[in-house]
Specification:
This protein has helices at residues 7-18, 22-35, 43-66, 93-100, 144-152, 166-179, 212-225, 242-253, 281-288, 290-295, and strands spanning 81-86, 118-124, 127-133, 155-161, 182-184, 198-207, 231-233, 255-260, 273-276, 298-302, 310-312, 323-327. The longest helix is centred in the N-terminal third of the chain and has 24 residues, at 43-66. Helix 7 (212-225) links the parallel strand 6 and strand 7 (231-233). The strands form two sheets. Strands 1, 2, 3, 4, 5, 6 and 7 form a seven-stranded mixed β-sheet that branches. A five-stranded mixed β-sheet has the order 9-8-12-10-11. It folds into three domains: 1-69, Up-down Bundle (Methane Monooxygenase Hydroxylase, Chain G, domain 1), CATH 1.20.58; 81-253, P-loop containing nucleotide triphosphate hydrolases (Rossmann fold), CATH 3.40.50.300; 258-328, Ubiquitin-like (UB roll), CATH 3.10.20.30. The chain is globular, with a radius of gyration of 22 Å. The protein starts with 6 loop residues before the first helix and ends with a strand. Helices cover 37% and strands 20% of the residues. The structure holds guanosine-5'-triphosphate and magnesium ion. Guanosine-5'-triphosphate binds next to helix 4.
Length: 328
């Protein structure tokens, strides 16, 4: 490897991580293989890239063979985090995906409009969240595959209707999640739950907060329930608090953005690396490539908590907005 990470390699690596299909992944990996200098020091990395290319080729072949058998509830995670929007009928789940993404799930005045999940990407500043619209849930029936999808997701958005029995909807949804052994992260699990549980990040979104009176009702809801979960009131129809919703989603997701830079050049401020809050420089390097984590000597950082170009070591805790120049 050269002393510093070539930016074009990082760009190709980014394309690899964001690629959706095996074909796109193969194309990005082939590019990475073409970029890295060929000498002893990069033997392992070259072998690893070749291994990954052949793995994706196999996948691509299998996919062509098996085709359509994949469940509609298996939606590959994309973007910074996958957020599953759940809730009772008619609360505005489809409206939210319809208004914030390019997807167009059906929206209608009557309940039980949605019968299958629909994903879409919602832009927040320079990152994207994957929002998944789902059919309404109730104690009477839930597709087991839908339960598994909720368990796999990074974040659950509980969507409620301010104009309905709001407290009832809230309590019902939490008890339904508890029956699936899904609990808000950081809360105590009841003693009688014997099988493994699924602690999840949860954001409560109360929709149809169209006017001042509705804002008061939302405040009353928060007071009466003493809600500890993060909760935001919005109106999709009026466009109220939509940015606040995205901001809350970002906060709940517990991630930060860092930007890469090559010495002597301007940083790439367009496509951040998204990493977990409290990640170290070493975690970031490992996310880029395990070889980079191994060879990492130090980094220079530009950011809020450091002076410009400050030299930091592996255990440095990254901050949101940090610009990082990795030295190997
Ligand atoms: N007043 C008001 N109505 C809204 C708002 N957002 C959505 N609606 C209406 O609520 C109704 C239901 O919206 P949907 O998005 O279909 O709700 P859903 O939760 O996907 O419904 P199901 O798929 O049946 O579970 C539609 O008539 C929407 O126009 C809002 O902010 N205020
Ligand atoms: Mg719907």
């Amino acid at each position: 490897m050269p002393a510093n990470l070539p930016q074009i390699y990082l760009d190709a690596e980014k394309r690899y991580r964001e690629a959706r299909t095996p074909e796109e992944k193969i194309a990005a990996l082939e590019e990475m293989l073409a970029i890295i200098p060929k000498h002893k020091g990069t033997d392992k990395l070259q072998a690893d890239l070749k291994h990954r290319i052949s793995k994706h080729r196999e996948q691509s072949q299998k996919k062509k063979g098996a085709a359509v058998s994949k469940s509609i509830y298996h939606i590959d995670r994309e973007g910074a985090a996958q957020a599953i929007i759940i809730g009772p009928p008619n609360t505005g789940k489809s409206s939210l995906v319809e208004s914030l993404t390019k997807a167009s799930p059906e929206v209608a005045e009557f309940p039980h409009t949605t019968h299958k999940p629909t994903p879409g990407m919602a832009l927040y500043e320079d990152i994207q969240f994957q929002l998944i619209d789902t059919p309404p849930i109730s104690h009477e029936y839930m597709d087991p595959e839908m339960a598994d999808m909720i368990r796999r997701g990074d974040i659950i958005i509980i969507m409620l209707d301010l104009k309905a029995d709001l407290i009832g909807q809230y309590e019902d949804t939490l008890s339904l999640l508890a029956s699936l052994r899904i609990f808000p992260e950081g809360t105590d699990i009841p003693d009688d739950v014997r099988r493994p549980c699924f602690p999840k990040k949860i954001l409560v979104v109360v929709n149809k907060m169209d006017n001042e009176k509705d804002r008061e009702d939302f405040a009353v809801f928060k007071e009466l329930t003493g809600i500890k979960l993060p909760a935001v009131g919005i109106s999709i129809l009026q466009g109220n608090n939509i940015q606040e919703f995205l901001q809350a989603l970002y906060t709940v997701s517990n991630i930060i953005r860092v930007y890469s830079k090559t010495p002597g050049k301007d940083p790439d401020m367009k496509e951040p690396f998204v990493i977990r809050k409290d990640s170290t420089l070493e975690d970031l390097a490992a996310k880029i490539h395990k070889d980079i984590a191994q060879k990492l000597k130090f980094a220079r950082i530009w950011g809020k908590a450091v002076h410009d170009g400050q030299m930091v070591q592996r255990d440095y805790i990254m901050n949101d907005g940090d610009i990082v120049e990795i030295h190997l």
